[in-house]
């Protein structure tokens, strides 16, 4: 099965790979200008990089906000030291109450975040990705928080075209997330990143393909031109059942993003013009299309 078939997308008319653009907006950015550019440049897929926003709604951050609000209110009141001490001790009880209700609040927050993405750009297929710092992203969640986030977003009632699950996630949690995705009919991309070097890509492809992955994705850093050639050749030589996405990152690896499809990589990440990259070496859609029509 091809990646297009798996994602239920129309057949390509020119044998080119799918183009995915990353949505890397943080809590203070507006989605509407992104949505407008999206309509203009019309990529195949949007990858929602939730790690750029989700940590701003973590339990610790939300509690800090509640606490800061209460303290600001206290500061405005002219209260005695005794009353102030009493109110502060009440904060401890409030903290316990906050912690007890957090799982429900967390689900609601994740649902609202997901809804805001789908309500603005849901006419495009969306891949759900939360990239941890260990794999080159912004995300600081623990493995349990990561799995909770992904499962809650998948169960939010909005249908993702695919979900990215990191290869390095603890295997028990990984299986749990994959089970939920499959129960909801969402294909799982198992992805591996190395921002320092190009390891043995063939071995990695073989290893990931043995997992319950519907798509295998590998993004690694070349230190020399030969590393890019090795990645492309490993992509061509792969005999796995699942669709494959590979790329060499950084400046040296850029050609893999443009011509990787000739070796069997079925999707390439590019940015909307003028928007930031989500990994080194990504080109813009315009650059990509210009190179393809040369
Ligand atoms: O896994 C990938 C590939 C990527 O790292 C890249 O190199 O283009 C960009 C990420 O947003 C995406 O999740």
UniProtKB/TrEMBL annotation:
Pathway(s) served: Metabolic intermediate biosynthesis; chorismate biosynthesis; chorismate from D-erythrose 4-phosphate and phosphoenolpyruvate: step 3/7
Keywords (A to Z) from UniProt: Amino-acid biosynthesis, Aromatic amino acid biosynthesis, Lyase, Schiff base
InterPro entries given in the database record: Aldolase_TIM, DHquinase_I, Type-I_3-dehydroquinase
MF terms in GO: 3-dehydroquinate dehydratase activity
EC number assigned by the record: 4.2.1.10
Active-site residues from the entry: 193 (proton donor/acceptor), 217 (schiff-base intermediate with substrate)
GO BP, one annotated term: 3,4-dihydroxybenzoate biosynthetic process
Positions with a binding annotation for 3-dehydroquinate: 47-49, 131, 257, 278, 282
Coiled coil residues, start to end: none
KW Chloroplast (keyword) present: no
Known catalytic reactions: 3-dehydroquinate = 3-dehydroshikimate + H2O
CDD domains per UniProt: DHQase_I
Keyword Amino-acid biosynthesis in record: yes
Similarity field: Belongs to the type-I 3-dehydroquinase family.
Function comment: Involved in the third step of the chorismate pathway, which leads to the biosynthesis of aromatic amino acids. Catalyzes the cis-dehydration of 3-dehydroquinate (DHQ) and introduces the first double bond of the aromatic ring to yield 3-dehydroshikimate.
Subunit composition and interactions: Homodimer.
Protein name from the UniProt record: 3-dehydroquinate dehydratase
Taxonomic lineage of the native organism: Bacteria, Bacillati, Bacillota, Bacilli, Lactobacillales
């Amino acid at each position: 099965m091809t990646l297009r078939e798996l994602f239920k997308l129309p057949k390509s008319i020119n044998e080119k790979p799918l183009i995915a653009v990353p949505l890397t907006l943080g809590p203070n950015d507006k989605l509407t200008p992104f949505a407008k550019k999206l309509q203009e440049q019309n990529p195949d897929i949007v990858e929602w990089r939730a790690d750029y926003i989700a940590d701003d709604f973590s339990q610790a951050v939300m509690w800090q906000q509640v606490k800061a609000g209460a303290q600001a209110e206290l500061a405005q009141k002219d209260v005695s030291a005794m009353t102030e001490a009493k109110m502060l001790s009440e904060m401890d009880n409030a903290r316990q109450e906050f912690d007890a209700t957090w799982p429900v609040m967390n689900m609601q927050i994740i649902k609202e975040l997901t809804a805001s993405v789908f309500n603005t750009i849901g006419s495009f297929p969306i891949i759900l990705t939360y990239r941890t710092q260990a794999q080159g992203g912004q995300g600081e969640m623990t493995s349990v928080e990561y799995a909770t986030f992904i499962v809650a977003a998948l169960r939010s009632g909005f249908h993702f075209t695919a979900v990215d699950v990191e290869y390095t996630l603890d295997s028990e949690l990984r299986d749990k997330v994959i089970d939920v995705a499959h129960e909801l009919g969402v294909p799982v991309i198992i992805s591996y990143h190395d921002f320092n070097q190009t390891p043995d890509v063939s071995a990695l492809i073989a290893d990931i393909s043995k997992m319950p992955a519907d798509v295998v994705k590998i993004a690694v850093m070349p230190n020399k031109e030969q590393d890019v050639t090795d990645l492309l050749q490993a992509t061509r030589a792969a005999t796995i059942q699942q669709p494959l996405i590979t790329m060499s990152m950084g400046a040296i690896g850029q050609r893999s993003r443009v011509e990787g499809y000739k070796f069997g990589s079925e999707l390439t990440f590019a940015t909307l013009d003028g928007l930031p990259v989500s990994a080194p070496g990504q080109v813009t859609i315009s650059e990509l299309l210009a190179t393809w029509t040369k």
